[in-house]
Every structure is written in C-alpha cells, then in structure tokens.
Design goal:
Elements: E1 3-10, H1 14-25, E2 31-34, E3 46-49, E4 52-55, E5 60-64, H2 71-78, E6 83-85, E7 95-96, H3 105-129, H4 146-157, H5 167-172, E8 175-179, H6 187-194, E9 199-200, E10 203-204, E11 209-210, E12 215-220, E13 225-229, E14 234-242, H7 246-250, E15 255-257, H8 262-270, E16 273-274, E17 276-282, E18 296-299, E19 309-312, E20 322-328, H9 329-337, H10 340-355, E21 364-366, E22 380-381, H11 386-393, E23 399-401, H12 414-445
Parallel strand pairs: 1-2, 1-14, 2-11, 7-18, 12-15, 14-23
Antiparallel strand pairs: 3-4, 5-8, 6-8, 9-10, 12-13, 13-14, 16-22, 17-20, 17-21, 18-19, 19-20
The protein binds flavin-adenine dinucleotide.
Length: 446
C-alpha cells in the first residue's frame, strides 16, 4: 500500500531543503523528500577536477556588502566556507582581440561606460513606457564590434554589477564572493540538514529523504495528492511542495492529473531559462598573466559569447593550472551537443589567439551539461516578470510551488532558492494550522 505522510517535497535542492527545515522544525515531522538524483544540492554541485574541487553549478555568493545581509553569506560565515572576493573591475583592462593585443584601458573603459549608459537610458525609456515593470532583456543595447559584444556579454550574460538593475545587488550589495572550498558550496547544505535530519559522520541516514526517486506523475484533488515515481513507488500526502527547476516544469517529465490549468502552464512556458556553462581546462603549466588585477580576462570575437569570459584559479588554488571559460545559452547548447574534443579545440583556438601558438595543450577538460540533464533543463530563470513569477508560484489546491524561479526578488540565485523554500514552508505551515482550526470547528458543530 502507498506510504502516507503530511507533506511530500519533490526535489532536494536548496529550496526543497529549506522548506523541509521550516516544516520539521515547526512540528510537521512526517515529511517525505523525493529526490531524482543520488545526492542533495541540485544546482549546487562540486566535482574533483585537476586535483581540486570545482563547482559545476552555483559558484558565487552574489550580493554582499549592502544594506541587508544575504542569508547565504551568513551561512557561509557561520560554517567558515572558503570564499574569495571577485574584483571584476579589472576585467576590462584585460580584453584581448583576436591577434592577442590588449585593448588600451581607456578604449575599453569608454566602451564599458557607454554600454552601461545606453542600457540605463533604454531602461528609463522602458520604465516610462510601461506600467508593468521592466523587461531587462528588451533594454539591452545593440553592440556591434567584438569589443562591444564582449562587454555586452559581461554585463548581461555574466550579470556583472553595473549591467541590469538586479534587486539582489540593490538589497544585499554589489560584492560577489567565489566559493572555493574543498568541501564544496554544498557544505552549507550538509550543515543545514544536520540541524533537522538524522545524520551520522556526515552521512545522511534519515529515511524521510529518498534518493533516486524520479517523480513522473502527480494526481491531485483539493485535499490529497498521490505521487508516482519512475521505479513504480506510490506516495500519498495531504500536500506536496514541488521544488523542481522551471526547466523541468517546462518539460514533460512530470504529468499532472488533472492537468494544470492554462494560466499556470502559460506562466511556466513564459519564463525564460538561462543556460550557463563553465568549462574547466587543466594545463601542465601556466601561460596566462597572474597577480593583482589579472584574475579575469576577456576574448573579443565577432561572434557574441564565443569563449568570451575567462578566469584562472591561481588565487584560490595556486599551482592548480586551471582555467575556466563561461559560455551561455546558444553557445552552451552548441557545446553540449558536440564532443568535448571539439570544444577543447575551439577553446585552445581562442587561447592561442590571445597568448600565441606556443602555449601548452590542455590535458583535461570538463563540460557540464545542464541543458541536457533531464532533472534540470537549464541553469536558472532569467529575471521573469513579477506577474509571471506570481502565477508560477500560486498554490493549486494541495500543490505548493517552490524553487528559485518562485522568488519574487531573487530568482536565479542560491539565496533566491533558499528564501523561496522558507516562504513556501511558512505558507504551508499556515495552511496546516488553518485546516486544523477548520476541522476542530466542524467537530464542535457535530
Ligand atoms: P535545484 O537545485 O534544481 O533543486 C531541484 C531538485 O529537484 C534537484 O535536486 C533535482 O535533481 C530534483 N528533481 C528534478 N526533477 C525531479 C523529479 N521529477 N523528481 C524528483 N526530483 C526531481 N546562483 C548563485 O547565487 N550564484 C551563482 O554563482 C550561481 N551560478 C550558477 C551556475 C550554474 C551553472 C547553475 C546551474 C546555477 C547557478 N546559480 C547560481 C543558481 C543556483 O544554483 C540556483 O538558483 C539554486 O541552486 C536553485 O535551487 P532550487 O532548489 O530552486 O533548485
């Protein structure tokens, strides 16, 4: 017979786990967490590469030093996570053209200033034109030269401060800290779950958390839900929190019975999903400049986003000889579909343009495939419109929606997922309280 609990949480990423914490710590203990993969963390994922631990997913704590305190930064302080301030202000002094020449700093700084001004102007116009808020995508200027294209990529795809008006920067500050800790960014999550799940010596032993449970069907009525998994298990509950990514909601991985109403599916499909790919390359020796102001460098190519943004890890892991290059969207999808050897050749081509043909060949490459991962289908939501977020988040009977994409101010970020989970947990607690009151009232009447 199916197992029955008060609440089923689908997904053990930061949002599902923070929702579980709120529920369990407030007395709703019969919770079941169903996770498709064999680990917690979702889009927070470390991997051994070239002798160190690298982050394939979230890497930065974004939004530090402002008027409010970022809750993820607080957790990082509490658990002594190893973090490094990312000083992007130097990046535009390290922009290379295809013949390996660095753009004079004045030229690059001017182009940067112009790009920011033009984005701000377009935004002002848009704000004046529209009473529905801002569509930051429409506000982008139209860059043309390789230098303009590179700067545009940094500002908008790399989400560098100074680009789009991002509420994370407004509330929490514009500083960003890179997590480079052998225990991984997900160390925060392990520490968090130790507070409410049964663990021993760092191992998760709580049988309310179930791995390799791929949810495929969700049957729901106004007061109960039945969840079917790919391996034929059936779980029943009064409520479900669905914390899978927006990409998964857009795919057909989970069938709803009855189907979701049209306003809901329309909102889900309207949400733009970013694909953001960090490609890791290991070298036998360093050939790129190191030292102050050299952590980030940029390749200006006529194709927007073609191996544009580079970072070395010598500050974090001296002697590791690792470079990271960031690709997004169409370029991400393109490299996901090709063999890594091809990607390696392309990346080496860009590096040879910048540093000459005598540089050593990379000995290893890693290309994460977030787009083709059926439990992700992308990396994060791309600043959806407020009304879209509200519709995606809106509760449907006993189904509560959570996840980074349901955060009205911080969608796309780890702190967005974390705060969204807390909010969902609290909303469900309130509902459970109300339901209790309703049933005592009706008992009293009979
Ligand atoms: P997830 O972490 O995706 O959790 C959802 C869980 O649901 C997953 O574990 C998944 O396996 C599971 N699941 C999916 N389908 C099913 C199913 N059918 N049945 C059961 N389980 C299922 N944020 C930052 O703040 N800073 C950064 O620098 C940053 N960089 C990023 C870079 C990359 C490459 C990526 C991918 C993300 C990045 N983010 C960053 C975003 C951040 O990682 C996410 O916003 C956040 O981790 C999302 O948490 P979540 O709980 O909403 O979703």
């Amino acid at each position: 017979s199916p197992s029955r609990s008060s609440v089923i949480i689908v997904g053990a990423g930061v949002s599902g786990l923070s929702a579980a914490k709120v529920l369990i710590e407030n007395g709703v203990e019969d919770v079941v967490i169903l996770e498709a993969s064999d680990r917690i963390g979702g889009r927070i994922l470390k991997q051994d590469f070239g002798g160190v631990s690298v982050e394939l997913g979230a890497n930065w704590i974004t939004g530090v030093g402002g008027k409010e305190s970022n809750p993820i930064w607080e957790l990082a302080q509490k658990w002594n996570l190893r973090t490094f301030f990312s000083d992007y202000s130097n990046a535009h002094f390290n922009i290379y053209d295809q013949s390996g020449k660095i753009f004079p700093s004045g030229v690059a700084a001017d182009a940067f200033k112009k790009a920011v001004e033009s984005a701000t102007q377009k935004l002002k116009k848009l704000e004046a034109d529209s009473c529905y808020g801002i569509d930051t995508k429409a506000a982008k200027p139209t860059p043309k030269t390789p230098l303009e294209l590179a700067i545009d990529f940094m500002l908008h795809d790399f989400e560098m401060p100074g680009g789009d008006p991002i509420s994370t920067f407004l509330d929490f500050g514009e500083r960003e800290f890179l997590v480079a800790d052998e225990r991984g960014y997900d160390h925060l999550l392990y520490k968090m779950v130790e507070e409410f799940l049964f663990t021993s010596e760092g191992k998760l032993l709580d049988n309310r958390l179930k791995f390799n449970k791929v949810v495929r069907e969700l049957q729901h009525s106004s007061n109960s839900v039945t969840v079917m998994t790919e391996d034929g298990c059936v779980f029943e509950a009064n409520y479900v929190i669905l914390s899978v990514s927006i990409g998964v909601l857009q795919s057909d991985l989970i069938a709803f019975n009855p189907p979701l109403p049209r306003w809901k599916t329309e909102a889900i499909q309207k949400c733009d999903v970013v694909v953001y790919t960090k490609i890791f390359l290991k070298f036998p020796s360093k050939f790129w400049p190191c030292g102050p102001g050299k952590e980030f460098f940029v390749y200006a190519h006529e194709r927007r986003g073609y191996y544009t943004f580079w970072q070395h890890l010598e500050n974090q892991y001296p002697g590791s000889n690792i470079l990271v290059v960031t690709l997004t969207n169409e370029e991400s999808k393109r490299v996901e579909a090709q063999l890594d050897e091809e990607t390696l050749k392309e990346a080496m081509g860009a590096l040879k343009d910048m540093f000459g043909h005598n540089i050593p060949e990379a000995t290893d490459i890693f290309v994460p495939r977030w787009w083709n991962n059926r439990f992700q289908r992308g990396t994060y939501s791309n600043f959806p419109h407020d009304q879209v977020v509200r519709d995606i988040k809106a509760r449907l009977g006993c189904i509560f929606f959570s996840g980074e994409h349901t955060s009205e101010r911080y969608s796309g970020y780890v702190h967005g997922g974390y705060l969204a989970g807390i909010e969902t947990g609290k909303a469900l607690l309130e509902e459970i309280e109300k339901e209790k009151e309703r049933s005592t009232e009706s008992e009293n009447q009979t």
